[in-house]
Amino acid sequence: MVGQILFIFIAVVTLLMALGVVVARNLFHAALFLIGVFFGIAALFILLEAEFLAMAQIIIYIGAIATLIVFAIMLSKGMMGRESGAYNKQWYFAGGAMVFFFGLVSWLLVKMPFKTISAQVPNDAIQQIGSGFVGHYVVPFEVASVLLLVALVGAIMLARERNS
Amino acid sequence: MDLRALGESFIAMLENMGIPEGWVLLINWVLGALAVLVVALLLAIFLIWYERKIAGRVQDRLGPNRVGPWGLIQPFADALKLLTKEDITPDKADRITYNLAPIIAVFHILMLFLVIPFADKVVGANINVGVLFLMAFGALGTLAMLMAGWSSRNKYALLGGFRVVAQLLSYEIPVGLAMLTVVMLRGSMNLNTIAQGQGGVFGLGWYVWILPAVFVLYFVAALAEGERAPFDLLEAESEIVAGYNIEYSAMKFAWFYLAFFLNTWVLSAVAVTLFFGGWQGPFAAQLPILGVFYFFLKVFIMFFVFAWVRATFPRLRIDQMMSFCWKALVPMGLALFLAVAIVLKLGLPSAATNALLFIVNVVILFATLKLLGNYTKDLSHNKNKRLFAPELPRL
After folding, report:
1. pTM confidence score
2. What topology is assigned to A1-83 in CATH?
């Protein structure tokens, strides 16, 4: 009962924040709304007793990605404090894409038989995630790391001073 | 006396009064949260006096000594003065963000109080991902200062905001590596479990004895995470006036001030929990209330060291500070992490493992100091007075 009330409350707040991301006229405000959305999702993870996922969500999405988005906005010339309209010439393309994807996701949600298991979350879930990363899923994990390293090197190459 | 038993008897009392179970839990949680909140805010007021007194003594002054005995009431007087000051919002400021920033700054610190074990199992939320929780909510502070710097519409505030991101994001890495090494040694991210693992003889089997270099790494990086001298570049008044909080006045400024002191206290508490056994000490196992005493004693000693460093050292330059993080602390942290992982994988008996961990730590610490010393002595880097000038490969 309490759990359901909490879920509805968190879900409504998260959805309102998501709406805010789209309709905010100021890019910085949109980024702040996005942080609110990430926070709401972390709260939903906690409601599902997935503490590790909740913390990972906050560290990665709020601590790293959102801060970098905000930083990028601050560093871009002319983006600071400028109000931009919610519509531009491409609005009908965006609207069409939105309707398509909304239909797709709704269709998937209706058609997809979601598997649920009633088993309790094991006590050593975090250890299992950890050994999964360096055991069974070591190749995808390492490939993802290499990808991030390549991105890092690429960013430094683009940003470095060129002394001709 | 067991503090747990007190809480349980309180729950039983509420249940006997015929209140449904869900509401009893809710009342218990709200009261627990209020207790943590009150302790944290009272602590902040005391810490301001404590730090000012230490700084005064270190710099051959008296420190606050007018209001109350030894000036103890001084912070209350300051708080009252701040409450009566005019609250100024810049005309061009982004109002919502501007007002939200101090709230988030304090909120994220108060959240950190949740996972710190004050005594065995006396902890706001005994969650299994305590260390991750510290990293996650610690990162929110960056956001609060960034919001403050941006929304003030002041170029110095904005520069302060840039520095916040550069400094705090960089120094989170060595702090994280130090925490990770301890987590790996204990095999748990639960802060209470980590403190429990440091019992030993007389409750003195602290991790600092076997991981001294990791503690040094954590301490140096924590100085930067807590925006304290010699790393207080965020509010370097000689360069950017006051940094991100320049446009804040009255109570809104006080919130940032409060967050600053509580942040240092939390960093000290985490250092104590990870490296100095938390609530462990002689006879703490027999008499749990002693654990609270030991914990606060250790944290205040640790806070004293933070304040001592702040009162003693001059400020670094921003490029020196960034280079020091990326070229000294991060490689040191990675080397320590790797060395500790290898030693733990050898599967030696625990006494030999501990001895080997200590040797490895000392070797890495001295190697780092030696390399840094050689680098600074080598005058060829010193031509343009930028000691850590970046050298990029020519392409």
Report:
1. 0.84
2. Four Helix Bundle (Hemerythrin (Met), subunit A) (1.20.120)
